[in-house]
């Protein structure tokens, strides 16, 4: 994968740049020894690595502003980093960059139950946002799989989703406001505890901009009261098509579960070997979760099982206890770990219209045969957000490249049937060069204009999201 | 001018740019009074972009031309038991306008209604747009799937940009089932501060409230605080009973079933529409609403208000020459919806104002699209 050639100008001034940064930070907040910067050479997309020139770990918005102002003045590229859990290489450094990590900014600034929001520093982890309010029976809804580790900063940058977003929406639907530092060091407040911000919806375009428009240091997030209870049902089918049709029928019947998860046979088998969740011997398994009081759960499950039965399931297992609920979810939650145990894998997250599910799964099966690489599918079926896991051997020369080509074929297929390249992981460097399959030159140019406005010098995370050829002239200037 | 397709519209915009002719974009014409006065040479009608082009009930998605009458979309969805989740208000009563509101107008002004408190605003349901920018380029962003983080989210940026960044030609939505039934819980004759506390208590409960409004006493009508619960019948009854019990500590409570009219009146702000006074829309943190309303009442004894979104949205009717922003002593902002005595939108801090101005300049370099509408 191509990355821009590091600027000799910047690298030759390293000691001066580091000295300037050191003047505005405490000694333990700047890392510039190569043996130590190496710890920041990659995120969760481990196939690509490059240690940065330096790493800064500020403690507050003012320090972030100081750092950015210095980098702006000295024309130094900056790569913002949350917890480094990006699957798309969103936090991959360049050799001439300063990585700006927000991990030390993890405080809770305000909780307000009357107005139902929490204000946190952006380095706080997703799960610990809920942790800060759960004693009052509240929670923060977006729940990416990495929620134990991933930071709100990264969630905002990637507009992260999760298993429960069919009902609660993704990050952008739960974000009320941010404090953001522009590349030139200016601090801005966008939105706040009130529902609608004035003027253009800048918050909407900042969320999901992959750290290219500014560094978000604080976020106001909507919190909700927990439902009284939740219960899953597991349904096994003897074909992917039937499982897909069942999902569609449930939605058409007016039932809106909080989650509809889909696993295909290769995934079920790997999960069974690993987690022994007791899943049936089926071609496809759906886990459908509903929420509410006992009576409400019963009412919804009654409707769901009635629909499922019309599709002749080979197994229909309604949870009767919290232990059974945990067992049903155990397999799904272990899916990635189970895959990681048997092989290296690449996880894609293209989204497709739900109606195209059978076709896409069939085509993925064909591609799997053609490339000689196994694929397991586990995904959020209610919203069409696929997660094909392509298995490969990182130690076998050429296997990664083969896997990447096959991944590209799958993502092109997602776009062809009316979907998109990425539903929740982001473009990063991983899908950067596929952008032109979804957007034409004018579409891309319009997005570049937005970056031109926020970061005219193109210093913030500039080698991401867009094909390098489309941004070269801007980065050079 | 009524372009029949994107190509014709794009050429028309190119020519207008070359000739320095400013354009005013018109959907159904029911919301033309929103925003600041627009200086223009030609009116562009979106009537040619009418019709639902894709609707998949099983995928909860609908795609339509921007000129499609809202009524047609509502009817199409209703046949499959679905709806636009955000309950867009109709401005005809408030603005004394006539015509058929279009979906493009709803998106351009990011119009939402009472359910916004639970289901999000128009911008939250919008998943894709096509538009023609000020240079006559056809641009797409987002698509027809409800989870999409591919590139920047210009879908949100276009929603509520009042046609100042581009002319919307097509819009795509995530839709939701129409609830089987609804119950309204009414809290009778409580003061505004108690009403806001009661609404906060309801919205902070696990009972999934989809509407929370307060109508203060007006003329001979006593005050009412209304909370809406929607869903399947058994579930609605359970939650409504629980919520009614929870709210009884605030005052006298009653329940009514399927009282859609009262929510339509709240949605369309019918109770404040009857005069020629100015109408403002104020967005604040709900718990700040009582303080603001008290200040407003002190400074403007004739003011009439209505609270929606649990207190987070205040509609206020005041005399035309009264500057309501002078009373806004809490965080938030005020938009002048009816009247022309003041700027329609709250001035932004200078850094953000500059960002907005630069974005407009990039999307519409010559400055021909709804020029001046957002200031």
E-strand count of chain B: 17
The profile of the biggest β sheet of chain A is:
7 strands, antiparallel
How large is the count of helical segments of chain A? Answer: 19
- Assign the CATH class of the largest domain in chain A: Alpha Beta
Q: What's the number of structural domains of chain A?
A: 4
- CATH topological fold name of the largest domain in chain B: Uridine Diphospho-n-acetylenolpyruvylglucosamine Reductase, domain 3
Largest sheet strand order of chain A? 15-12-14-13-17-18-16
Most extensive protein-chain contact, per-chain counts: A-B, 93 and 83 residues
Give me the Rg of chain A, rounded.
23 Å
Helix content of chain A: 25-40%
Helix content of chain B: 25-40%
**Number of discrete domains of chain B:** 3
Number of helices of chain B: 12
* Alpha carbon gap, first and last residue of chain A: 23 Å
Give, in order, the helices and strands of chain B: HEEEEHEHHHHEEHEEEHEEHEHEHEEEH
Q: Give the CA-based shape of chain A.
A: globular
In the predicted model, the low-confidence regions of chain A spanning at least 5 consecutive residues are none
Give average pLDDT of chain B, whole number: 97
Approximately what portion of the residues of chain B adopt beta-strand conformation? 25-35%
Keywords for this structure?
heterodimer, A: 477 residues, alpha+beta, Uridine Diphospho-n-acetylenolpyruvylglucosamine Reductase, domain 2, Uridine Diphospho-n-acetylenolpyruvylglucosamine Reductase, domain 3, Alpha-Beta Plaits, 4 domains, seven-stranded antiparallel β-sheet, 18% strand, B: 375 residues, 3 domains, five-stranded antiparallel β-sheet
Summary of the model, kept short:
The complex is a heterodimer of chains A (477) and B (375). Chain A has 19 helices and 18 strands.
Molecular structure report:
Chain B: Residues 1-178 form the FAD-binding PCMH-type domain. Chain B: InterPro entries: FAD-bd_PCMH, FAD-bd_PCMH-like_sf, FAD-bd_PCMH_sub2, FAD-linked_Oxase-like_C, Oxid_FAD_bind_N. Chain B: Keywords: FAD, Flavoprotein. Chain B: This is 2-hydroxy-acid oxidase. The complex is a heterodimer of chains A (477) and B (375). Chain A has 4 domains: 8-103, Uridine Diphospho-n-acetylenolpyruvylglucosamine Reductase, domain 2 (2-Layer Sandwich), CATH 3.30.43; 108-225, 2-Layer Sandwich (Uridine Diphospho-n-acetylenolpyruvylglucosamine Reductase, domain 3); 228-339, 2-Layer Sandwich (Alpha-Beta Plaits); 343-426, 2-Layer Sandwich (Alpha-Beta Plaits), CATH 3.30.70. Chain A is built from 19 helices and 18 strands. Chain A has helices at residues 8-12, 14-22, 34-37, 61-74, 126-133, 152-158, 165-168, 171-174, 202-206, 240-252, 265-275, 294-309, 322-333, 335-342, 357-371, 399-416, 435-438, 441-454, 468-476, and strands at residues 30-31, 54-56, 78-81, 98-101, 108-112, 117-121, 138-139, 175-181, 187-191, 215-222, 224-225, 230-237, 259-264, 284-291, 315-318, 344-347, 375-380, 388-392. Chain A has a 7-stranded antiparallel sheet, sandwiched between helices. Chain A has a 5-stranded antiparallel sheet with strand order 5-6-10-8-9. Chain B has helices at residues 6-19, 70-79, 92-95, 103-108, 116-119, 122-125, 154-158, 192-203, 233-247, 260-267, 289-299, 350-363, and strands at residues 23-26, 42-45, 52-56, 61-65, 82-83, 126-132, 138-142, 167-174, 176-177, 181-188, 209-215, 224-231, 252-257, 278-284, 304-308, 313-318, 332-338. The longest helix of chain B has 15 residues, at 233-247. Chain B is built from 12 helices and 17 strands. In chain B, the strands form 5 sheets. In chain B, strands 3-4-8-6-7 form a 5-stranded antiparallel sheet. In chain B, strands 11-12-10-13 form a 4-stranded antiparallel sheet, with helices on both faces. The chains are: A alpha+beta (477), B alpha+beta (375).
